[in-house]
Design goal:
Tetracycline Repressor, domain 2, mainly alpha, Arc Repressor Mutant, subunit A
Length: 185
């Protein structure tokens, strides 16, 4: 687990890791506290419910994408940005083949019930789709909104298949094909 000084940050990072590996439902507040090295009672100082912890995890994912989008926009052209977006999955093939996509898995698990967390997850995915569509728009690709959705669906599908098969090579091959598809624009 990444080292963090602040107890709240340690709890969020521990929850992020555990929810990715085990899922939301199988992760308890006690598990999160133990993994963060924080006394269990301290969890309630920062979070009233497990859903509050999940909101913080979703925010952590969103913040990561903020940083990445800003970095990619400063360093690359739109095609390079799309390749970097696809590449962020390819760079984590072993972890994703073992545990699935942290965001995709959380969406799949939580969308089975109608919870307020669904709105936060939907916003996170829609934000990514909109950013990807903006890159296709900058490339003057036809129907950039549909292409944005297609890129995300291809990546999520690739992770799902690699995870189901437990084979990181599947994800390597599929993301290579996705990158070739992006290069066509």
């Amino acid at each position: 687990m990444p080292v963090a000084n602040d107890k709240r940050e340690r709890l969020v990072l521990a929850a992020k890791e555990l929810m990715h590996r085990r899922g939301f439902l199988r992760t308890t507040l006690g598990d999160i506290a133990r993994h963060a090295g924080v006394p269990p009672g301290n969890v309630y100082y920062y979070f009233k419910t497990k859903e509050d912890v999940a909101r913080a995890v979703i925010h952590e994912h969103d913040t990561w994408f903020d940083r990445q989008f800003t970095r990619w926009e400063a360093e690359m052209d739109p095609r390079g940005r799309l390749l970097a977006y696809a590449g962020h999955m390819a760079a984590r093939c072993e972890d994703l083949a073992e545990n699935g996509c942290p965001i995709g898995s959380l969406c799949a698990e939580l969308n089975k019930d109608d919870t307020p967390l669904n709105d936060a997850l939907d916003r996170l995915l829609k934000r990514q789709r909109d950013w990807v569509a903006t890159q296709f728009r900058a490339l003057q690709a036809p129907n950039p909104d549909a292409l944005g959705l297609e890129l995300i669906a291809r990546l999520q599908g690739a992770v799902l298949v690699a995870h189901a098969l437990g084979d990181p090579d599947v994800l390597h091959r599929l993301t290579a094909g996705i990158k070739d598809w992006v290069r066509e624009f």
